């Protein structure tokens, strides 16, 4: 196993689910982590747990829809640790419903969080990556849209596929080897993501699927660790992580 010791990793959406699991795992493996989310009390508690277990953790209250918050996250990371090796764009929402419901407010929210939030992260981290001569952008995407769009998931899948496109564009612009990119696409994971789903039937079915086949958030965290522990001349461009039994 390659070492994560000395890596400085900022993680959005770190107050629960995949973000929390990633912060805990990376800290256990020797990385210093900066947890970012809107729920200050939650990320403070997780960071305290990490420190009590011998790890290094800091926090920053962040709403990813606000560009200035992502700038502050990068600044906090630089002030605390002197550099930022990895930004994990994990924050996301899924208020999915049939297009015929015309829930334009939810459409806008998904665009703001899932896509614009990721772009805000790119805008904040890329100058720092360039200045220090290296950096790694990791985004938690989704298997949604990989092989056709499931009913009621058109806008959600569109935002996630847009993130893939941005990743590929950044990869092609970064042939000097300074910036690496990794898109990690989970399938059913046992998190509270379905809480944001506005259609009651879809939300209920999603939770049933999570209960029946969902994998733990730690499975995705291990994929994040695998991608960022690679040597600088190796880029893991995309990883799909889903239950073995998921169609």
Automatic annotation (TrEMBL):
Transmembrane segments: none annotated. Signal peptide: none annotated. Its EC number is 1.-.-.-. SMART domains: PKS_KR. The keyword Oxidoreductase applies. Pfam families: adh_short. Residues 7-191 form the Ketoreductase domain. InterPro entries: KR_dom (IPR057326), NAD(P)-bd_dom_sf (IPR036291), Sc_DH/Rdtase_CS (IPR020904), SDR_fam (IPR002347). Coiled coil: none annotated. Keywords: Oxidoreductase. One of its GO terms (molecular function) is oxidoreductase activity. Belongs to the short-chain dehydrogenases/reductases (SDR) family. This is SDR family oxidoreductase. It comes from Streptomyces vulcanius.
